[in-house]
């Protein structure tokens, strides 16, 4: 197994290559937005049944 500092250096180098946030941050943002939409749908779906 490579030395941890070598792995960190490789991750640092690849994250700078595309100039944007890393894939982990993008994944967290996408999952957060989808989770907020699902939570809003779950909370608001019961209000339509009040006739």
Key words describing this protein structure:
mainly alpha; 71% helix; 51 residues
Summarize the structure.
The chain is mostly helical and 51 residues long. The protein has helices at 4-17, 23-44. The chain contains 2 helices and no strands.
Please specify the SSE layout and strand pairing.
Elements: H1 4-17, H2 23-44
Task: Give a written overview of the molecule.
Helices cover 71% and strands 0% of the residues. The protein is mostly helical. The longest helix has 22 residues, at 23-44. It starts with a helix and ends in a 7-residue tail after the last helix.
Largest sheet: none
Estimated share of beta-strand residues: under 5%
Multimeric organization: single chain
Got a strand count?
A: 0
Helix/sheet category:
mainly alpha
**Uncertain ranges:** none
Query: Taking Cα atoms only, what radius of gyration do you get, to the nearest Å?
Result: 20 Å
């Amino acid at each position: 197994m490579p030395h941890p500092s070598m792995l960190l250096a490789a991750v640092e180098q690849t994250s700078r290559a595309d100039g944007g946030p890393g894939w982990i941050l993008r994944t967290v943002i996408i999952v957060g937005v989808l989770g907020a939409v699902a939570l809003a749908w779950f909370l608001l779906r019961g209000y339509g049944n009040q006739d």
